[in-house]
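Practice problem 4.
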């Protein structure tokens, strides 16, 4: 029985589903979000944090397009940091610890109060497709049908999810939560290939049983960086009350920890052969790290609070599928955790995905029009990657429902574009994670300029208001005025025994800062964002231009042949992953090498340099 009609339906209330549903509703589409549990909308299934290398840039891009993740973490974060501050601006990225409960409550509240968005706690078991291979509706477990014009599937780890704790297994999409089963039958019926992937999460520890006095403290930054262009410099509910940021702590595994793991490998789900799915290379379990790096005496563990009103601690770096009784022994072999109590055991989870090569760059499936995929269901890992896909899928689902042309984000304009192009062109052999090295435009695709790059798109779609876009345009105009002023303004600088006149703009490339200019008596911008952005743009200007020309040259060099007898171990600058995959695939040309999943643009450049084709 058909009971209602919607323009767009979103299946899943995780980080991808939230951004997809909000984008569609904000574009004026009558949108419905289906979730197995309304109270877990926005749940952080694993680490209590948003951001990280490249990931924080994606959050700012989602924000620039009109998404919600940046504002959510600014309002519910308890510790903020800018990562890689000792390196260049191109690889810096914000990261924040979240209060998990408040983050979830914030997202649920935003979704509940969003105009045009309706939430239903029901399991979708089938998607109805017309004879013309177009989505026309869906059916729930209770037999209710809804007419829809487009569907976005964001099932995360819930599609046929299977939990592993040692030799114990049980079906779940997240520990002790029901999984989605029947929807997999739809994909088999429509001849979609399904892959089996795996991820995991560590135990949650009782803070009252940890000896923090013996541990290294990891504080936040002062002042704390924010994620959203639209929030105040200090947006956290915690800081607004004049409190200090929360702290994290650092400890390390020991040789005893590694002994316990090695002696019990046969009891882990991964090494006993019970897990068939492929796990994430860049977020491995502790048993994976111990086996892959046998010479390492210790591995770093970050103890991260899950919130301000809970005693739960997230031990970042200690994901495992060991039996629970061995987990107790392992955790207690670590300094500071000698008497620790486990609140929730660690576990591994297997789940189904559809290979992302089944999608267009719009994230619409090639087989069925009006069907979109986003998030972990596309083979990615991470809240931020999910949000980036979610907002793009939601935008394009809304455009399809309203009869408008879809959009796609180019590699040259966003990390979301890099990720989607990687996924839909190269596919995935293991859970995908974003890194700055995946982009050949990383000097331009920085965390500081996301709003300047993407606000025009967000405004054109109706996701940013006229007032918001006007602010961005005013900032852009002020930036150009200051850049032009510094290009024309001359300054005399001591050189050797004499003096020399320089354009002020060239001083930034030479390492001068705005503070240096101020001490020299020169005018500087008052607005903090403009002040920082002018300095960054003028400092990076020649390098961004060089990057652009290099990318043009790289495209011409794609057909360079690789010698059959090349020894990849002798090629400097390759990551272990790139070296391993180049050895296995043995590509014939540099262009073919660059299309191998895991072989980054930086690896292609290193290969060209080694072959003597790039100066």
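Answer key:
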């Amino acid at each position: 029985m058909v009971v209602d009609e919607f323009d767009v339906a979103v299946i899943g209330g995780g980080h991808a589903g939230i951004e997809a549903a909000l984008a569609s509703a904000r574009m004026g589409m009558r949108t419905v979000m289906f979730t197995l549990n309304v109270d877990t909308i926005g749940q952080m299934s694993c680490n209590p944090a948003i951001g990280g290398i490249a990931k924080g840039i994606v959050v700012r891009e989602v924000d620039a397009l009109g998404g919600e993740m940046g504002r959510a973490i600014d309002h519910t974060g308890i510790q903020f940091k800018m990562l890689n501050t000792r390196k260049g601006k191109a690889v810096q990225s914000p990261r924040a610890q979240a209060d998990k409960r408040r983050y979830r409550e914030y997202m649920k509240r935003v979704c509940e109060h969003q105009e045009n968005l309706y939430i239903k706690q029901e399991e979708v078991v089938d998607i109805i497709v017309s004879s013309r291979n177009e989505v026309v509706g869906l059916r729930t477990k209770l037999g209710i049908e809804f007419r829809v014009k487009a569907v976005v599937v964001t099932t995360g780890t819930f599609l046929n999810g299977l939990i592993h704790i040692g030799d114990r297994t049980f079906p779940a999409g997240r520990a002790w939560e029901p999984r989605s089963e029947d929807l997999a039958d739809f994909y088999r019926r429509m001849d979609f290939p399904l892959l089996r992937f795996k991820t995991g999460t560590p135990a949650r520890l009782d803070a009252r049983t940890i000896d923090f006095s013996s541990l290294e403290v990891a504080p936040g930054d002062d002042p704390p960086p924010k994620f959203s262009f639209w929030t105040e410099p200090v947006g956290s509910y915690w800081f607004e009350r004049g409190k200090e940021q929360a702290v994290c702590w650092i400890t390390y595994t020991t040789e005893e920890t590694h002994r316990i793991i090695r002696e019990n490998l046969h009891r882990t789900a991964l090494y006993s052969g019970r897990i068939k799915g492929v796990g994430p290379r860049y977020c491995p379990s502790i048993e994976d790290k111990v086996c892959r790096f046998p010479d390492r005496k210790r591995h770093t563990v970050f103890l991260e609070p899950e919130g301000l009103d809970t005693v739960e601690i997230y031990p970042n770096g200690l994901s495992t599928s060991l039996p629970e009784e061995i987990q107790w022994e392992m955790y207690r072999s670590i300094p500071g955790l000698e008497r620790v109590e486990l609140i929730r055991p660690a576990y591994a989870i297997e789940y189904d995905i559809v290979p992302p090569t089944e999608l267009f760059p719009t994230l619409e499936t090639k087989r069925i029009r009006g069907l979109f995929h986003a998030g972990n269901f596309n083979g990615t890992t991470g809240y931020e990657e999910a949000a980036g896909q979610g907002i793009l899928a939601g935008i394009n689902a809304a455009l399809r429902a309203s009869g408008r042309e879809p959009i796609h984000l180019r590699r040259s304009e966003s990390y979301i574009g890099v990720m989607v192009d990687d996924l839909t062109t190269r596919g995935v052999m293991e859970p995908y994670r974003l890194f700055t090295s995946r982009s050949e435009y990383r000097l331009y695709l920085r965390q500081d300029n996301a709003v300047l790059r993407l606000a025009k798109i967000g405004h054109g779609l109706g996701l940013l208001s006229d007032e918001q876009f006007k602010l961005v345009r005013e900032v852009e105009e002020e930036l150009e005025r200051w850049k032009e002023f510094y290009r024309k303004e001359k300054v005399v600088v001591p050189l050797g025994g004499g003096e020399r006149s320089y354009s002020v703009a060239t001083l930034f490339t030479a390492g001068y800062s705005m503070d240096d200019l101020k001490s020299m008596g020169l005018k500087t911008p008052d607005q903090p964002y403009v002040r920082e952005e002018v300095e960054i743009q003028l400092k990076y200007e020649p390098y961004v231009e060089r990057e652009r020309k290099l990318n043009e040259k790289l495209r011409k060099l794609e057909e360079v042949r690789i010698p059959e007898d090349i020894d990849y171990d002798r090629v400097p600058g390759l990551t272990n992953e790139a070296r391993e995959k180049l050895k296995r695939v043995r590509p014939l040309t540099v262009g073919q090498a660059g299309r191998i999943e895991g072989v980054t643009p930086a690896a292609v450049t290193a290969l060209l340099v080694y072959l003597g084709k790039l100066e």
